[in-house]
Structures are given as C-alpha cells and as structure tokens.
Amino acid sequence: MVKKDKVLLVIDMINPLQFSKAGLLLNGMKHMIDPLVKLITRARHEGIPIIYVNDNSGRWESDRDYLIREALKGTGASVVRRILPDSSDYFIIKPKHSGFFATPLHALLHDLGVETLILTGVAGNICVLFTANDAYMRDYKLIVPQDCCASNVQEDNEYALRMMNQVLGADTRAQTDIEL
User: Fold this and answer.
1) Is the CB of residue 46 less than 8 Å from the CB of residue 136?
2) Cα–Cα dist 139/137, whole Å
3) Which of 56, 60, 135, 165 has its CA 20 to 30 A from that of 101?
C-alpha cells in the first residue's frame, strides 16, 4: 500500500444517470471532463492514490464491476469511458450523499496516512459538498478544483464552491493552478 499525504477522490462520476434531471448533470459533467482527466493523469504521474467514491443508487447488492457496467450503458458512457478506474485505484460504494457515511473511507485514509483530500465529481452542491463537510469535521485539508466539480445548476455549483472555500477553507482554484 502506497502511503501519500494526499489522495484524489472522484465522487459519483461512475454514474448511469438514471434520474429525471440527468441531462442537466451530464451537461455539467461534459464541461468538467477534460480538466478532470488531466487531474487524474497528474495524480497518477505523481503517485497520488485515487479513490472512486460512488453511490449505490439504492441497489444494496452493487459492486464495482456492476456500477461500471451500468454506467457504460447509460447516457454518460462517453464521459465515464474517459475516467475509468485502473487496477491500482480504490473504489468505495456509499449509500448516501457523503463519502464518509457508512463506508470504510476514513479507515482507508488513515491507513494511507492522508492529510489532504482533493475532491472532484458530482454533484458539487450535494455529494461533493457533504463529503467535504464530513472531511472538514475530521480535520482533513481540502482541495476542490472548481473546474473538476459540477452540479445540475451552475449557480448551485458556484455557491457550493464558495461555501467550501469560505467555510471549510478549501482551495478551490482550477486544477492547473494546484500543485500536487
């Protein structure tokens, strides 16, 4: 197990987009995919562990392979194909909004010796924000690259980023401006 002081969390991007407002979220995902691909590439180059944190979508018998298969059949398949986890990445399935709620995320971060979380993904105003809140409560330093996070509504995403910056102390600069 590689120990690093930072990890990259990719939240809810392995997503079949099977809900009523999925088109709005897909539009946001398409705008953030290029910066996210660059950030994932940079993280891999630097040896920073990548943890995919994904919703079980109410399906309790979900596993990593099932979620990936379903996402590749969904309307966002072209986005998902560009950021598929590789064999060295971690994959955690969550039942609710926060990546910490009822998951082994905190234990994994502890074992890796992590101090800083780089949070990316969707929806910025829900799952990314809730994960950031829980991370802050656990004394992690936060980086939330503004160009690697999307919500159904751009204004909601901007508000969530402002909150994470002003209240949680997150660095919300663009991924190109963040040193890994």
Assistant:
1) no
2) 6
3) 165
**Within-domain flag for 86:** yes
pTM of the model: 0.95
Tens of pLDDT along the chain (180 residues)? 566 799 999 999 999 888 888 889 999 999 999 999 999 999 999 999 999 999 987 677 778 999 999 999 999 999 999 999 999 999 999 999 999 999 999 999 999 999 999 999 999 999 999 999 999 999 999 999 999 999 999 999 999 999 999 999 999 999 999 999
Q: How many domains does the chain have?
A: 1
Give the span between the Cα atoms of 42 and 50, in whole angstroms: 11
In a domain? residue 1:
no
Q: Distance between CA atoms of 70 and 7, rounded to whole angstroms?
A: 26
Which residues are bridge partners to 141 per DSSP? 116
Residue with tokens 């101090």: 115
CATH of residue 26's domain is 3.40.50.850
